[in-house]
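Teaching assistant here, posting this on the class forum so everyone can see the example we discussed in section. The complex has two components, and the goal was to see what a joint structure prediction looks like when all of them are supplied at once.
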Amino acid sequence: MPRLNLTYSTGIVLLALARGRRYGFDIMDASGLPDGTVYPALRRLEAAGMVESAWEDDETAKAEKRRPARRYYRLTAAGQQALASALARYPGLGRVLPADEAPEPGTAR
Amino acid sequence: MKETRGTRGGEAASDGQRLVGAALLIVGALSFAAPRATRAELRREWTGELVAWWRERAQRGETGIGWRLRLLARAVLVLGDAWTMRRLERGGVGTVAVERRRREISMRDLLSDLAIALRSLRRRPALATICVLTLALGIGATAVVTSLAWGLVLEPLDYPQPEKLVDVWPERWWSKELFERIRAEATSFEKVALWSASAHRLVGDDGGTILQGPVASAAFLEVLGRSVSAGRGLEPQDERPGADVALLTDEGLRRRFASSPHAALGRLLDLDGRRVEVIGVLPAGLDVLQRDAELVRPSELDPEGSDWDANYLHVVARLRDGVTVEAATAELGDLARRWGADRGWSEETIAEAGVVPLHDSLARSARPSMLLLLGAVLCVLLLAAANVANLLLARALEREREMRVRAVLGARPGRLLRQAWTESAVLALAGGALGTGVAVLGLPAVVDLLPQETPRLEHVALDGWSLVVAVVTTVGIALLVGLAPALHALRANLRPVAASVAGGGAALRARSALVVCEVTLAVLLTVAAGLLAKSFLRTMRTDLGVKTGGLLTFLHVPEADRFETPRELAAYYDGLRQSLAALPGVEGVAEAHALPIQNSGWTMEIYPQDRPPAVGEPRAWASWRPVSEGYFGLLGVPLLRGRGFTGVDTLGAPAIGILNRTGASRLFPDGDALGQRVEMPWDTGEPIEIVGVVEDARLKGARADVPTTLYRPYEQAVAKTHAQNLAWRSIVLRAAGEPRGLERQVRELVLSFDPRAAVDRVTTMDEVVAEDRAGPRLLLVLVGLFAGTGVLLGAVGIYGVLECLVRDRLRELAIRAALGASRRAVRGLVLRRSATIAGAGALLGGGLALLAGRLLESSLHQVSARDPYVFAAALAGAVAVALLAAWWPARRAGAADPGGLLRGE
């Protein structure tokens, strides 16, 4: 497993996932992180085993709304741990991301 | 206009789909920045996200322009992610935080690039201004012309399945009788309808008014594929005589019933002397093929009716599923052969039978000039781009040294490239912003200048997309063009700092090539403008055969059914004429069925009494013009032979007529027309004796040929058809002073003479003539403007290149001078260079203009598209302007002081 340097923005991405954001754009919207950060962070976190991803069931997406499938992300156990240490390292992190309710799966905010 | 066409749900949805499609295209293109291994996966992920995101917006109705822009922004921003991932992959370990820092630095770079670009543009304000102005003109003109072309020529008709709508045998004027046959016999059409543009007299509480509205057979709406929005549509029983019903268009509903269908439905209108019931209301935005139409009336299809076999109608149809235009044309050919057999149609007539897509038929008149304008605008865009390239190349040359120093100090190639690009982007953006302004202000002005009867003119609106296309094109061109100096900078970067200025030669050659292009385009535009100008002058100088100055005209519509005999009608108009003539400031009054240029009037078959046409022989046609006593004198049409009309030429008297000169020589080529008799079956049917010959008048405008014209005394002219319409007359007044000054007096007098009469289309003959020239004039103004820009840019380009040349070679020139070359020789060197560039451009431009001749031909009047004088003038002009532009650099070269220069080195 490659070592991951736990930065502030990586922490935000982890936190957004923990709060129920499931999609890349969704995380960008929630975190306010600029373009060019979220996707690379997700890729790195996934490579480090802290995040896992899967494709929406293609058939459901198509049958429901006739749209292409989306890829969604969620935290692994290792990711939960990393988030805890990120929160310890950057105590202000929790305030960056508004603690609104986790949206229903499949809907954006 | 667009607003009136209404938005339908489906339209918005498909619009959104197009937008998402565009966003996905952007993502697809930008994803190439991502590392190859993950590219496909990322693209799929982003596609899913974008579509889902937009769907949610759409579900909440968040589809406004802000949201649309955000969608596009999202798509563009994936570039950031793709780019970062590529750099991470290349750079191995890195962190997001570090990436962010790098991005911030690049943001700072961008700002500094911007500052450098602005500074360097400010250093050459004249050139930068010219660049921005030409870009603005290019973008603005492109947006205006493409909007025009879209509205007039390209935009699909706003009907369901518009590609199935066809104009049936558009060259032919149909009769009701023939329409009955095609309706019964043709199998290619799902529905077929006849129609004719028409005007109606409505009498309301405040007197009579004229309103526009087509007369059409019952299936008209079905052919168009639309139905009424309230009430009922036209039914077959409405085609029977005496069915006094009408449909109101949205325009009519708005004007007459304050947009309330309830108030309108079932109401009786006093229309054309009958009580006509409003049975239905048409949806907003439905184009009923006649401008400003307020209603649609059913056509009476009565075999006993007086106009049963009169040819004055159009036929439109909707093709049956699976039937092509070619198949329908073939069928119509067969039908025409059958119909023509007992009508004596000639082979030529039968050969034209066919169907034309309705859209082509409506757009036909505007197409040639639109193509010409699109071509001209393309030249302007290219010119603008070449000019920007030229400016940037000049800048690159000047900065070569600076670039090299920066490269040696560690600036990366990409950085230098971007800086060169920033400059073009700044120019393009400034040009784009100004160009938008040009388009917004220019389009209404251009529409105003177009003849008002241009078909589909009401569909012209500034098209957002055409503006986007223009801006994107220019920015794209500017970026491409910016590549040249950037590459130059890069190459410079590779050379050692101490390298000689030899590279300047290559850049100078590149600039010379660009200037040759500019001159080429300028000459092309100048030739086009010159040809149009010559053609316009010919049009202006064409003798219309009518003295138009000081004439006020209006259409006078009395209650037609009040007059039981032609004598009564004649007495009514005699009275009106005398009252009008008695007004102070009025020098003369006359009436005509159709005014020169303004109305096409009716065309009827004509032949000498003793030489009726044989079966299958082409027929001769004449413009049929009933006029009152005094008409020829008032309009200044000289009587060449015989006599004019007088009060004795009444209905009981022998039928007489006056031919124009062309008609007299065509019908009686080897003899005197005077005293001969002609037959006009559509007139009263009696043989008509020719009692006079008048000079030709260009009744159809300066650009059309003079038709055979037969004038008839009004009282005798009781055509078999439309007897009622002969009550509608154009009245012409000669004013002692300004004709418009009489307008109020005339209206008051007419109303006091007959309170139920309607007065419409009050205008002057001079305005009628101006309207006839509006199209060519607009074309000339636009192309002339473009050509002027081209010449200016070409001159500026030549000047810039020579300046550069002289600066670069000042040393060499000084040495030459020191070695004894005369100033003249040195000046000659520079002038020769200028002449070479201009000559090459002029020849290329002239050649292109010869090739482009076909595009121009149909817009020219009495001028060949290869007019040698225009070509020679344009070419000579180009060389003259080039030498003028070279004069200052040449002087400077000649004045080079060898001593000072060599010392300065």
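For the discussion questions: Chain A has six helices and two strands. Helices of chain A lie at 8-18, 24-31, 38-47, 58-65, 77-89, 93-96. Think about how each of these relates to the inputs above.
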